[in-house]
Design a protein that fits this description.
About 30% of the residues lie in helices and about 30% in strands. It is of the alpha+beta class. The N and C termini lie close together (about 10 Å).
Length: about 425
């Protein structure tokens, strides 16, 4: 095993998959996470087939993922009058070699955490320690500046530092001190989970409404055998005037359901009662849909950004977590080729920074939900026959373009070689 130590700032999805990848290829690493206790927080996220493929290669099995989520069968957009705009099978049903999973974010993070601790040992992760900056060493390597909740400060030395510390990344702030503030496009999201009977295929991702006023609904658990109810993740979204910026304190807060349900009071159809779904939630959270402008590089010598620290993006493409997983694996592959060196980080940056920066901007333009924009512009969101509004080939071409940009076009993914070959190890130095 190499004596080089890689420091990872952040124990979220990206940081933990990076840690698991480095452990797999024989690189010592240490995760520094700001929370003092790991708990399964959050609501639903999607893991696209390109990410599930990488998880399988890490030894995270379908049985593991079934404990924290459910394979997706369908992706569908539905207009204001309840008629389909576009629907397609997902995962194995679409012809991928790997499924797409809808999972509970917190439970998935705990799965990654527990797997890493089991493989690398509890001493490989420190909780209650936040990386607040770094210093490049003249002799090579890096020093991570650490702050604990008590205010105590310390340092840790390593060969490389990976900034996986999210959209508010301190590592990114030092790397790009002149970056613009967080970007808010005007959309406000209210999120929650409710126990309800799954609709359509029983495992469908549904985008309902218009690009300025919509619901996103999908299950993140298998149905309970006794009741037939599953945990349904929902996102209620309205686009507002953002000319004066976000006025609330903080970017994420718990709210009362009565604060926003009026936006969806009449959203009832024979197959779905949106107000009832929302009111069945125990708790709801509000946050603006935000991202960050792309930066020209994710690397500063022995320091690299990944995940939301590198490319926080609108969730319209359901691929933020998936891209973080891919980041980690590409980073590991670069170390197999170049060792635990800044050259590996440069190779990783060269492969991903440019195209993923374009994906940030594509998602800002509504991502795959751009079809809702087109329907709204052409008919106001209501129609009898979608073919009269957007021809089938135009809809198919639109979706194919997005999948190619996001890295999960079927043919390309199914025929691609493994990012990291089985048994591959970084040579000791």
């Amino acid at each position: 095993m190499t004596d080089n130590l890689v420091l990872i700032a952040g124990g979220g999805i990206g940081g933990l998959v990076t840690a698991l990848t480095l452990e797999q290829i024989g690189v010592r690493c240490h995760v520094l996470e700001s929370v003092r206790e790991m708990r399964p927080l959050g609501v639903g996220i999607n893991l696209q087939p390109n990410a599930v493929r990488e998880l399988y290669d890490l030894g995270i099995s379908a049985a593991d993922l079934d404990r924290v989520g459910v394979p997706a069968k369908e992706w569908a957009l539905v207009g204001l009058n309840g008629n389909d705009i576009y629907a397609e099978p997902r995962g194995l049903l679409a012809g991928y070699k790997w499924p797409q999973y809808a999972v509970h974010r917190g439970h998935f993070q705990m799965l990654l955490h527990d797997t890493f601790v089991a493989r690398a040992g509890r001493d490989a992760i420190s909780l209650g320690k936040r990386v607040i900056g770094y210093e490049k060493k003249a002799s090579g390597g890096v020093i991570a500046m650490i702050e604990e909740a008590s205010g105590k400060r310390s340092e840790m030395h390593g060969a490389l530092l990976i900034g996986a510390d999210g959209i508010h990344s301190a590592v990114r702030a030092q790397m790009h001190p002149g970056q613009p503030p967080i970007h808010w496009g005007g959309a406000v999201m209210w999120r929650g989970t409710s126990w309800a009977k799954p609709i359509r295929t029983g495992s469908s991702f549904i985008g309902l409404g218009t690009h300025r006023h919509r619901m996103v609904i999908y299950p993140i658990s298998h149905p309970d055998p006794a009741t037939g109810l599953a945990m349904i993740n929902w996102i209620a979204e309205v686009t507002m005037d953002n000319s004066e910026g976000w006025k609330e304190t903080g970017w994420f807060r718990q709210v009362k359901i009565d604060d926003f349900i009026h936006h969806f009071a009449d959203w009832t159809w024979d197959w779905l009662d949106v107000p009832a779904l929302i009111r069945n939630a125990d708790i709801a959270f509000e946050n603006p849909m935000i991202d960050r402008d792309p930066v020209p590089t994710w690397v500063h010598g022995p320091v690299a950004l990944m995940g939301d620290a590198a490319h926080a993006m609108y969730p319209t493409g359901s691929n933020g977590a998936s891209q973080a997983i891919v980041d980690a694996r590409v980073l590991g592959a670069a170390m197999l080729q170049h060792g635990v060196t800044p050259a590996a980080l440069a190779a990783y940056d060269a492969q991903l920074c440019g195209p993923i920066s374009q994906l940030i901007l594509r998602n800002r333009g509504a991502g795959p939900f751009g079809l809702l924009n087109m329907v709204d512009a052409r008919c106001g969101g209501t129609f009898d026959n979608i073919d009269d509004v957007i021809p089938p080939q135009e809809r198919a071409d639109f979706m194919a373009g997005y999948k190619a940009a996001a890295g999960f076009a079927i043919e390309k993914l199914n025929t691609a070689g493994q990012t990291i070959a089985p048994g591959a190890r970084v040579r000791a130095t």
